[in-house]
Amino acid sequence: VLELLQEFAGKTYLSVEYGMQTMHDKSLDWMNRGHHHDAFLDAMERSRGRGFEICAHVILGLPGETHEDMMATARELANSGVDAIKLHNLYAVKRTLLAEQVEQGEVTLIGHDAYVQAVVDFLELTPPHVVVERVSGDAPPDYFVGPDWCLDKPGVRAAIEREFNRRDSYQGIKFSAHA
After folding, report:
1. DSSP output for 4-40
2. Cys-Cys crosslink for 65: which of 49, 69, 77, 93, Cβ 3.0 to 4.6 Å?
3. 19-78 per-position pLDDT tens digit
4. pTM higher than 0.85
5. Is 122:85 a contact under the CB 8 Å cutoff?
6. So what CATH class is 2-167?
């Protein structure tokens, strides 16, 4: 498959997206991903240098993950060789186990302010050349359970920009490459 993608990439723009979500296997187990972080690392290793863009998806605010856990994922991703990232907040949709857990108080979804702080901290660790294609996620209102704040995507983006301005900061200000 990678050889075929490489052939396509020689003829047109091609982007391949990988669902990293987090570097923490305990969280990947919790969400039933069916793989661990080493599968993402293997995919990255086999994909690099093939002429197509590589984008990774990350979820911030997973249950059981601390702020430092999220920043460890940021540092890992920063040195992985990705060309682009899509950040998502964890949100719940109707008729899912997560929705039941949220409604029963078993899982608390990340709040607006904590999410904004996490995104800005994450992006400060992200290399300047990495394209940020998304900073939050949501679902259609008919299926959506929460958190309500993520339905206002322009407001979330504006809050992230305000926090960067308040800090006099920018993407990559704290990036540090390591071998």
Report:
1. HHHHHHTTS--EEEEEEE-S-HHHHHHTT-SS-HHHH
2. 69
3. 999 999 999 999 999 999 999 999 999 999 999 999 999 999 999 999 999 999 999 999
4. yes
5. no
6. alpha beta
